[in-house]
Design goal:
mainly beta, Jelly Rolls, eight-stranded antiparallel sheet, seven-stranded antiparallel sheet, 5% helix, 44% strand
Amino acid sequence: MSQQIRFFEKSKCDFSDTAVALTASQGNTYVSRIIDRSNMTAWLTTGSVDADNTTIEVNFGDVKTIDSILLLKHNFKSYKIEYWNGSAWVAFATAIDETTFTAATSFHQFTAVDTLKVLLTIRGTQTANGEKRLYQFVATQQLGQFASWPQIKRASYSRNRVRAKMLSGKESIREQIGAFTASLSVAYLRSDADNLLIEALYASNHGFLTWLCGGSETQFSSVRIGYRLEDLFLMKCANELVNDFYQAVYLNGTTPKIDLVEVVD
């Protein structure tokens, strides 16, 4: 099933990697915004029409292994994504070639490739001849997807608000951009694959991308912040790994509790 929580490696074209280079055939001044991890800044064209076949080239600066590409918050109806095989642009084993796309977020998986760069070609927008926009471009490798359904607790988008009393008696409230946190727990977990995935998350020295919706919003009664397709956060485990067996019976599953926090690295 596609709904369970997914985890990915940090994007191979994250802004923190100074070797990454981006080139857009239109709106090149703003193209760096697609790798800044923000859903509030976007690449946008000016005066573009569908016939322009606008391109964005993402050069990783070194050969990287990828098996997943996500386009978060865009308005593309027709587009394709190819990778550089060392001498030419070629399609992935599962070709990314959309012609009637209607959603605002895309998720593509394919057989892993080692490549220096990828090329996005936008052939049309969902409103004909509209300005093209994209908030996030993520090229990565999936770490795993839960087979079980952890309970998501304390899913919080904190603005770290600070209140100050003014002489007038009114208050000044200041807030930051915000960071996402959440806790995952399972009554008891018997899936070996899920336990191995959890242990890998705790063993990671780097942040990993967490996608609570897993690629589908249909399991939620309403789509809320943190659970949307566009909500992909770079996170780490904030607590220690505890592998207690349920009710101390060794034949039972473990009772993991995972505290996730959004991180800078």
